[in-house]
Amino acid sequence: MEEADAYRTAFRRGLRLGLPYATVSGVLSLSFGVVAVQAGFTVLQAVVTSALVFAGSAQFAALSVLTAGGGVPAALGAATLMHSRFLAMGIAVAPSIPGGPLRRAVEGQAMVDSSWALANRGDGTFDRGLLLGTTVPQYVAWVIGSIVGALAGDLLGDIERYGLDALFPTFFVGILLAELGRPRGRVAAALGAAIALALVPFTPPGVPVLAAAVAALVGLGADPTPTEAA
Amino acid sequence: MTLGEGQLWLVIGALALITAALKAAGPALVGGRDLPRWANGVIAAMAPALLAALVATAVLSDGDRWSAGADTVGVGVAAALLLLRVPLVVCAGVAVVVTAVLRALF
Fold first, then answer.
1. Would you kindly state where each structural domain of chain A is located, as residue ranges?
2. What is the ipTM of this complex?
């Protein structure tokens, strides 16, 4: 039962940790709602997209291709590439999720960038309670934000003007700084950023971030568990 | 956008399936067994690598070209404040205000 207690404690801690990220999620999905409706989605379509897809980068990628007249295959391709980092993230999380394949597949849906990063113990394992708990408030805010944005729609006009696009990178910088305490974390971060930026002019959006996963190979041979935790 | 409402529903359905499958693949296929020891170091290094790539592409690129703008400055100022241990929520507010003010001025 000790394990179940630890899980509940971590889940509750996750709910609290998730609140500031939920604010950001709400604002981001509000902007998605606005842009989607301006692009021709109905209010219902914009909200259903957020509720079912629940992936900011994929939603914005598909939307921007459609708005630019890029066609359905290109839109789905862009969303797939933007979202493909979750393949790598899912493989990383896999050993920390118990149960059969179906249950693991379902729990995997709870991964979002911030919950994945916050649940990362830094030794190759993930805190499952924290992963799920951090995601819950973000999902709620994600859906509510889209409803508000889709309804407010045309009232807001060009939303770049409000500077909201600075929000999500700032929160990721916050999580990233915690990772930079370890020398290998610093090397991985520097390499990851360099690889991604180097690829920007030559690949479709999404590929640079996926390719940056290669930088994690600097962790080869590292012993991240000085204690007997593993 | 030239899609009809029905076509758009199909796109939304496809998006939902694709994103769910990508998130499900790792846990469903790789889970249930211990990864070899060397993998732990790689997995631990994955977070800083991907986060740095996300941040770098968000603030220093626009589509398929490098670009710096008001948001680059806003996030840069916020990052400096974060290093000085200013709370995250305050830094996020500063990032938004700096970005919006710069956009209004230039």
1. 2-164, 180-230
2. 0.84
